ABC transporter ATP-binding protein (Vineibacter terrae), 342 residues
Amino acid sequence: MSAAAAEGPLLQVKGLQVRYFTERGTIEASRGVTLHLDRGETLGLVGESGSGKSVTSQAILGLIREPGRIVAGDIVWKGRSLLAADGAAYARRVRGKEIALVFQDPMTSLNPVFTIGLQITEVLRHHLKLGRRAASDRAAELLDLVGISAPRQRLAQYPHELSGGMRQRALIAMALSCEPELLVADEPTTALDVTIQAQILELLGSLQQRLGLSILLITHDLGVVAALCHRVAVIYAGRIVETGRAADLFARPAHPYTMGLLRSTPRIDVVRPRLVAIDGTPPDLSHPPAGCAFHTRCPIATDACMAEAPSLVPQAGGRTVACWRAFTPAWPGEAANRRARG
C-alpha cells in the first residue's frame, strides 16, 4: 500500500444532505451524497443539470447560503470535519487555501470593475499575507504558469479585455495562487468553444502532474471525463448511483442511468445508427419520487425499484452501484453492443 493510500482519502463526503427552504416548499438538492477523493487523482462528478453536482461543490467550499442549509452528513478534509461545531476556524483556513474552486463562467465570476491583477493579489494578500509587490510578482508568475502571454501587462487589464479562454486561465491562476491540494473545477469548459475546451483540459492535466493536485471535476460532458478523470461518480436526483474507475465505467456501466448517459454521447469507437436520449425528465426534488428516483425513466424498473431506494453496494474492481438490477442490459441490443466492443 502506498503512503498516500495508508493516510486515507484526502476528502470524504459522508451522507451529505442539503435542502433549500423556499416559498414553494422544501427542495432536497442533495439527498445523502457519499464520495471520496484520494491524493493526486481526478474524480469526475457526472450528471444532468439539476442532479446536485454544483450543490455538492458549494457545500465542500462552504458556499451554501440561505435559503439553503446543510441538514445532515459531514465533509471530512484530511481526517478532520469541516462541519463540526468546533471546526469553524479550521474550515475558514482550509477553504480558499488548501481547497480552491474554479467556477464555470469566468465572465460572471470575475468582477468587471477590478483588474485581473487586483483580483489575484487580493487572494494572495489575504491567505499568504504577502506585501503588495510580492503579491504582484507572484500573480505574474501564476499567469505565466497557466500559459497567458505578457503576464505583467495582463495584470493591469480588466476581464472584458481578455478572451474567454484567457479569462478561464486567469480563474485557474487565482485558484492556484495559494498552492491548494484540491482543485474543484465546476464545469470549467462549459462557456468555451471546443478548441479552447481542449486547451483548458490539457492545462489542467499538465498542472496536476507538475503540482501534484487532486481535482474534483464537475461536468455533464462524458468526453471531458474520458480525457481527464481517473474515477467517476455518477449522480442523479441528489444521490450517487454509481462509482468506479473511468475505464471500467465506460467499458461496462452498471446503472441504467449511466448506460443512458453513455448511449446519448457520441463515441468514435462504437458505430451506432443514432444517439438515444433518456426518456422523460429528472424528478422534481421538491417532491422526490419514492423508491429509486430513476424508476420513472428506467426501461427495466420493477416493483422493488418503485418501493425502496437501493443503497450503494460494493462490487468487484472497486465499483459501487445503487441499483436493484445492476449490470442488467437496459436497452435492447446493449449486451450485443458490449460483445462487439470486446
Remarks:
- The domain at 7-39+50-98+236-340 is CATH 3.40.50.300 (Rossmann fold).
- Residues 1-6, 335-342 have pLDDT under 50 and may be disordered.
